[in-house]
Write a structure and sequence with these properties.
This protein is an all-beta fold. The protein contains one helix and 27 strands. It has a five-stranded antiparallel sheet, with no helix packed on it. It is globular.
Length: 385
């Protein structure tokens, strides 16, 4: 199954490389952004921003956390990472708010926020008997403001991202599983998007995967913009993440990233895309720590690594190229923001210092994510500057 609208027939899909894609072209690469390649204007570029153990798939901290060796999803970025913590001070202050769906006050993750303040997330750890269940959360964020969003016939769903359009033009993305097994790694994952009230299954074509695909299947969509360009990844037969873009209107996949470093990555996850077509995510080489990247629509590549961190993972960005994510030092995880002019800033929920993950950001700079408290409960987090 490559692409399917629920209740309809399979639709043909095609694949491309980024060099042939409208948002990313030929590039140069270094530690700094280099001269952009030329490209014509695109009339669709309008509006505003959209904004994961050793188990694979729907599991605690699923989707966002990867292991350095394989890129397979892990229970916690903080596992087995040595050294002592060193953080920076944010240049802005935030008001933090805990947001938990009352169906499971022990496990919530907020994964995306758009420019209207609409939040995507889920509750449930994914362990057997504690299924992931997706939702949208509207302002002012009361219990009555949660809206159930689960892929039809699924046992588990995570809603991971959304764009900043409204009504029938709103697109949400995520992934689902038909099972909730004792071993979370045995649950197959399938990407999806929802548009105009209809759910669509998205799976990268096995015939286009150079190294084949993992068994069970793992495909996840993690972000989408106002033009309908979604980002995500699949696991290849070696258990390594392979990032891709998918257009919800044309149903085309884009499966190669520019820059020598990204092309040589053993594992790469595309986790966020903004309305300018800039893409962020994280990758690992055969040696060294997990690092992050920002690829602009014109093919410029910026490699991001928090100073002194054992791992740096970017999970989202806004239209101002403010990138958010988490880094690990000394077995602890800290949220971060990064901007072209200001660099890295550490952001931690006061109730979750050393366990904070930032997953999404909108154009107002509002942040969403999660943290784990002293009782090992995972709470959704909203941080407003």
């Amino acid at each position: 199954m490559l692409y399917r609208t629920v209740g309809e027939a399979v639709t043909k899909t095609t694949t491309e490389t980024l060099a042939g894609h409208r948002t990313l072209g030929a590039s140069h690469e270094s530690g700094e952004v280099t001269k952009p390649a030329t490209r014509s204007a695109d009339p669709r570029d309008h509006g505003t921003r959209t904004p994961k153990g050793s188990t694979v798939s729907l599991s605690p901290h699923a989707r966002r956390i990867a292991t350095a060796a394989t890129g397979a999803l892990a229970a916690s970025l903080a596992v087995a990472l040595p050294a002592t913590a060193s953080t920076t001070t944010p240049s802005v202050s935030y008001t933090f708010k805990r947001l938990d769906n009352s169906n499971d006050l022990s496990f919530n993750q907020l994964l995306g926020i758009n420019n209207y303040g609409l939040i995507a997330g889920y509750f449930g750890s994914g362990l057997q008997g504690h299924k992931n269940k997706g939702y949208l959360l509207k302002s002012p964020y009361r219990q009555t403001d949660y809206v159930v969003e689960n892929f039809p016939t699924s046992a588990q769903t995570q809603v991971t991202g959304l764009n900043s359009l409204t009504g029938s033009s709103l697109v949400t993305v995520g992934f689902f599983s038909h099972t909730n097994k004792a071993n979370p790694g045995a649950n197959a994952n399938f990407g999806f998007y929802k548009l105009a009230g209809h759910y669509h299954e998205v799976v990268f074509p096995a015939g286009q995967a150079p190294s084949g695909k993992f068994t069970p299947n793992v495909d996840q969509l993690l972000g989408v913009n106002n033009s309908g360009e979604a980002v995500g990844f699949y696991l290849d037969s070696h258990g390594n993440s392979r990032g891709y873009l998918f257009n919800v209107h044309t149903h085309k996949f884009v499966s190669a990233f520019p820059g020598a470093t990204l092309r040589s990555a053993v594992s790469l996850t595309a986790s966020g895309i903004n309305n300018n077509g800039d893409v962020t995510g994280f990758f690992s080489l055969s040696t060294g720590p997990i690092r992050s990247f920002l690829v602009t629509r014109t093919g410029q590549v910026k490699i991001l690594a928090f100073p002194g961190a054992d791992a740096t993972q970017a999970f989202g960005l806004n239209d101002h190229r403010e990138v958010v994510g988490a880094y690990a030092i000394g077995g602890k995880s800290f949220g971060f923001t990064w901007t072209p002019g200001g660099g890295f800033k550490t952001v931690s929920d006061p109730a979750g210092i050393g366990t904070t993950f930032i997953n999404g950001v909108n154009n107002a700079g509002d942040l969403v994510g999660f943290y784990t408290d002293a009782k090992n409960n995972t709470h959704g987090m909203l941080a407003i500057p």
